[in-house]
Amino acid sequence: MSAPGARRNVGRAATFAVIALAAVIAVRNATVYPAIAGYDAAEAIEYAEGLVRDGRLPAGTGSYYTPPGFFAIGGVAIELGELLGLDHPERVGQIFNALAAVATLFLLRALVRLLWPGRELLHLAAIVFFVACPVVMKAAAMFHPEPLSMLLSTAALVLAARILVRSDYRLPLLVGLGVALGLAQLVRAWTLWTLGVVVVVLAVAAVTRPHERRRLAGALATVVAVAILVPGLWYVHQVRQYDSALFGQPHPAEPVWSRRPIGFFVGGGLPELVTSPYRPSYSRQFIPIAYTEAWGDYFGIWRWLPERGTPSAGTRRELVTMSIVGLPFTLVALAGWFALLGLGLRHPGRSVERLLVALLPLAALAGVLYFGTSYPTPDGDTVKGSFMLTAVPAWAACFGFAFDGLRTRFPRFSTAFLVALAVLALVTVPFLLAVDQL
Amino acid sequence: MTEQQRPTEEWRYVGVAFAAVGVLVVAQLAGWLVYRSVHHDPTALELTEKCLRREKLLTVDLARNDPIAGTARGGALVTRVEENGVQVAIATTVDEARQLAARYLATGRKIELRLDVRGNVLYVWEQPREPSPTQKQAMYDCWYQ
Q: What is the mean pLDDT of residues B61-89?
């Protein structure tokens, strides 16, 4: 049996090797993937160009409800791309997103090291999950705000975890956390749930740590004040213009709970989830669309285009493979999530910082379910996987936790588990590579 | 905390969580088997009609006067989008859709401008010009096959 120290070194080396491979794939994808094929690409490019060239926000059209954080950076990136004489100047924005995804990987490593110090194989498993889950690489190749919101949301989780783990309540750290949460809201409204989770966890810590209660209450007030102050002007502008700070779109007059049938919430999409995991299969079921968006290409933006009919036989094989490969990853991540939620509920004061990764998937699921229910569309368009991108680092941590638990509970199979993880991850690699023509 | 000092309680929770996931998987499979035995999925025609009525608030009728659309195995319907009438014929296979399209093209009534084939579904527009992007999009939003 190898010494724990040697095992840790191997785990660390493997983690960095996976991060390096992911960086190469992400940057390569950004230079290959046609930006116009991504989600709402035309709107995003128009928003970024209008913002930087003319200093104007979309007036009630396109992505007017999306904050301008990414589009300001994306517009500058397009200008830079034009200065460089690129045929597709938006490529610079795509490369920015690829780098944001790679930076998130480093933040994820920092997060799991803070939550589970010294458990290198747990860290490795979390990193592998994050890289293998295609929703990350798909978003990272696009000209879209999601990767930047994921980066800022994860930065906030790391800062919050550091504050709680080290009981370090210095003002710069607290302001940094508030700024990260505020900037995240200036990129995508989905990150409001990260703010909610951080507030809840700090409040739980204040209740369960009597000796630090005053400092935690002060920390909470500081973080919330800064997190509201930073995006404040944007919300004021939206309320003045559209009477809604977030998403002032019309929706059916029926009550929220009756806008979707019960099948939307509990349907598993079987057997199409495995046999034909693409649109329009199970278009009125939440779970299989969210799953296929995470592990495959439900809407046809990565491997096929719905305008050309159903995917080709080769693409269908690839989508079916990904649907199968995603199952063990998802089930193990679910187990880790349940376990962390159980631990958090039974012993909220013990390792309260782990609640950050236990509560984020819950908040993300609730948010996307609410959105998908409030705005029902016949093709499931309001259930895009990228909407939950900010929760992927938390899902990765849950996966790492359960994988390490399994490995430690059954030490004789530890090597087999690691080999299985490596094989599953390798199977996903071809799908992670973007194609230049869909 | 080192690996040896790790609390065993943590693994109890992980074990229970794996059991809970197993129960969920079994429940999902059992639910599917029961659902499959008692429920029959609505046809593409029913889904299209419901979507056009409910989501797009359009008036929908069965296509009765078109001999070609009338032979589509998945059924056919007519509606009107932004003052432009459209006939929707739903084939059950891509081959059938191709044959229907060939029959339409053989009529020679400037049909190539008005005919749009998307997967198994054929759209034949009334006005003798290409439909506008918003007209097309309204129909694509209710595309089932």
A: 90
